[in-house]
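Side project, low priority. Logging it here so it doesn't get lost.
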Amino acid sequence: MKIGYARVSTIDQNPNAQRDALKLAGCEKVVTEKVSGVSLKRPKLKKLLRSLNAGDVLTVWRLDRVGRSLPHLLDIVGDLKARDVGFQSLNETIDTTTANGELIFHLFAALTQFERSLIVERTQAGLVAAKKRGVRLGRPPALTTAQVKHARKLVESGERPSAVAGSLGVDRSTLYRALKQTSEK
């Protein structure tokens, strides 16, 4: 039996194109899941993998629908092969029920992992470059410098920190953190 697995990363994305392609490829059943590809918590995929029997073929629209991690992909396909279950990816024309298809799978899996590594490297290089340019990363401060200065005066004059924080519309821990950060500079 040919069974399809369609995955989209966000609720906003629509899996219809994947489902249509899988049905057209002869899948008798298509399981759809909405979860990020890098997440290892994919309950529908896990359940589907457990349900496959010898002779079945797991079919996906694209290789990255199963996952972007090379070890994860290899584990899945290795487990399927050990159970005499085939794996097919429509866009990459991979079919592990043939020797050529198995070779192509391993090449594409390596390329997919390589692409993911490049994305991580570029992101990290961008963050380092931004920091060197003085760009402040992360969430903006909850309090301005003037608000922290005013709060420090109030606390030093005897006001309760919880009352000062409340008047500024922040939590007491946020006030303490801001006061500590400005005293360290």
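Brief comment: The longest helix spans residues 99-132.
Revisit when time allows.
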